[in-house]
Amino acid sequence: MAIQFTSHEVKDYLKEKRKLKSFLSDLFSAEGQGLRSLHYVFCSDAYLLEINKQFLQHDTYTDIVTFEMGEDPAITEGEIYISVDRVLENADKFEVPVAQELHRVIFHGALHLCGFKDKSKKDAALMRSKEDEYLVKYFGNKIV
Prior knowledge:
This protein is of the alpha/beta class. The chain contains five helices and four strands. Strand 1 (2-7), helix 1 and strand 2 (34-43) form a beta-alpha-beta unit.
């Protein structure tokens, strides 16, 4: 099982990568999802917009795009692209620390790969609840 973090032409805001890799592995286990490989790519709005257009035919900015690359639905082989520009803007907009917003999006992508959806109000509420749960587990009560 390999988890990688790459920054593509953006500042690296991620701290304690070893701790986060272990936590993500535990998140997948807790959700009953196997994990073979996971690659997070932190990038700019412009870079993620091109991915969104090319692969999803969406001409909109977004904070995250998640791809399941494997063939076995029980074992994740995923790629997650995160716009650092969106994370910074949303942290300011929602008046939360950048680290909190960054980890919320990181966990959001992992939860998508575990099968959680967010298109309906009910699904979005469950996704938000799971994000909060994992933020508290990761940070304790320091941030949330």
